[in-house]
Design goal:
Blueprint lengths: L10 E6 L2 H10 L3 E4 L12 H10 L4 E4 L11 H15 L5 E4 L10 H11 L3 E4 L9 H9 L4 E6 L10 H11 L5 E5 L7 H8 L3 E4 L15 H12 L3
Parallel strand pairs: 1-2, 1-8, 2-3, 3-4, 4-5, 5-6, 6-7, 7-8
Length: 239
């Protein structure tokens, strides 16, 4: 929280793929982690050992992606069986939440699949990930997600390769969630230099960084604690 501003600081979520990433991000000012493996494939479910180690290593909340493959966001019965097992195992680790996303072949939110995972997640927080950006109609998809009380975050780039190309859509989605239980989490393409202006232009209350806070801007590299600290300072500066 910024002591110089009456408004609460914007939440900063950082992707971690290792225990070292997690520690560096937490020390540099991240508010929350998204723990993934296979970041080059958009993030897949990490091992149970990694989840337990990261939860033990940091004080900040750890959200864990549950995604059994990177082929699509359409899952069959076997995929869901695996996901439900993973969610139940993650619930026992002390993680804060799970990051999930599922669509039907028609480009609509898979409501039944989402409901099943929410049921297995019990008290875990639910973030719906960028499967959202592949939905046929983003505003309609968000309406569906707003019908699920357990979904507390929607990670989105506004349907564009970079969220920086989607300021108008992001403003629309932020307005759509106003007063609700759900927060728009802006991610994909954010940079240290652009984040402050983007937050001002869109009104987002939470941002998500992956390659933008890594060494050399490389998604497969380690996190760069100096970049995270710079983002934190940008977010905390009085507007």
């Amino acid at each position: 929280m910024s002591s110089q501003s009456s408004a609460p600081s914007v939440l900063l979520e950082v992707i971690a793929t290792t225990v070292s990433d997690a520690r560096l991000a937490a020390q540099a000012g991240a508010d929350r982690l998204e723990l993934v493996t296979a970041m080059g494939e958009g993030g897949l479910t990490p091992s149970l050992g990694l989840i337990e180690a990261v939860v033990a290593a940091v004080e900040i909340p750890v959200n864990v992606i549950v995604r059994p493959h990177s082929r699509s966001f359409v899952f069959d019965a076997d995929n869901y069986a695996v996901m439900l097992r993973d969610v139940r195992a993650i619930a026992a680790t002390g993680a804060n939440g799970v990051v999930i996303g599922m669509l039907g072949a028609d480009g609509e939110i898979d409501r039944d699949g989402l409901a099943r995972v929410i049921d297995a997640a019990d008290a875990l927080k639910i973030t719906f990930h960028r499967a959202f950006d592949a939905a046929r109609d983003l505003q309609k998809a968000l309406d569906v997600l707003l019908g699920f009380e357990a979904v507390t975050n929607v990670l989105t780039s506004g349907g564009q390769p970079s969220v920086l190309q989607a300021e108008q859509m992001m403003r629309t989605l932020v307005g759509q969630t106003a007063g609700s239980h759900c927060t728009v989490l802006a991610g994909a393409g954010l940079t240290v230099d652009a984040v402050a202006g983007f937050v001002r232009a869109t009104g987002v209350k939470a941002v998500h960084f992956g390659s933008g806070v890594r060494v050399g801007g490389n998604g497969l590299a380690a996190v760069d604690s100096q970049k995270i600290a710079r983002v934190r300072a940008e977010l905390d500066a009085p507007s």
